[in-house]
Amino acid sequence: MQKIIAANWKMYKTRPEAAQTARELAGALASGLPDGRSVVIFPSFTNISEVADVFVANARVAVGGQNVYPEAEGAFTGEVSVAMLKDAGASWVLTGHSERRHVLGEGDGLVARKTAFALAHSLNVMLCIGETLQEREAGKLNDVLLRQVTTAFAGLPADQLEGRFAVAYEPVWAIGTGKVAGPAEVLDAHAVTRAIICDVAGQIGKKIPLLYGGSVKPDNAAALLGLDNVDGLLVGGASLAAQSFIQIVKA
Ligand code: 13P
């Protein structure tokens, strides 16, 4: 399976800053991406078109939105539609990111609606899942993964997911904390997630990329990518500077 290396720029960068980072990335990738790798960049809404313009001719670098609202249009102040994302140059969207779940209060039901709506309207979706430290310490890791995956998959067309859907396991306690999950923890969570996905989606579950996210850095990327069931990385802080993101892409 191709490894997807994704950059989540969160609420960082003005338009000139985003364009500058995108140009630096494009320059570093001019000689090509390593075999078997593809890149997705998730800038803030206002920066999507700047970044998409830079990569318009590069089929292996895609751009995505960090959020979407599950209605075609309407009175939803502050939200963004699939059509708006696509018009700006996005082909992917993140759903269920832990900051949306835990800072902005999104529940599993809304995450499921966003996931289904985006897929049904031809955006590719990267669904984020992961447990808090409290949940892990209470022995609830498997329950949380089961709940988050099953609710998001309910009603998804399994036969249309290949190449259009990815799941990112991001333990909340490892995001932006410098605490990367250890190899045993990543192996375990990814094996559990793979089993759940195969259960709910059938054979196609084996072909759905499973990414790891949480304090990924240039010096731990290669080891993480070498683990079973790790089909890519979703990178926050270390994706903001082109140099460190490129090292991760090439790890
Ligand atoms: P950090 O890489 O900064 O820990 O962020 C991970 C993340 O939330 C990516 O979506």
So how many helices? 10
Distance between the termini: 16 Å
> In CATH's first tier, which class applies?
Alpha Beta
Secondary structure: number of strands: 8
Q: Per CATH, which architecture? A: Alpha-Beta Barrel
Output the helix-strand order.
Answer: EHEHEHEHHEHHEHEHEH
Parts with pLDDT < 50 across at least 5 consecutive residues: none
Strand content: 15-25%
> Which hetero ligands occur in this complex?
1,3-dihydroxyacetonephosphate
Structural class: alpha/beta
CATH superfamily: Aldolase class I
Number of domains: 1
Overall geometric form: globular
- Spatial order of the strands forming the largest sheet: 1-2-3-4-5-6-7-8
CATH fold title: TIM Barrel
Mean pLDDT: 96
Radius of gyration: 17 Å
Any key phrases for this structure?
about 250 residues; alpha/beta; TIM Barrel; 10 helices; 8 strands; globular; binds 1,3-dihydroxyacetonephosphate
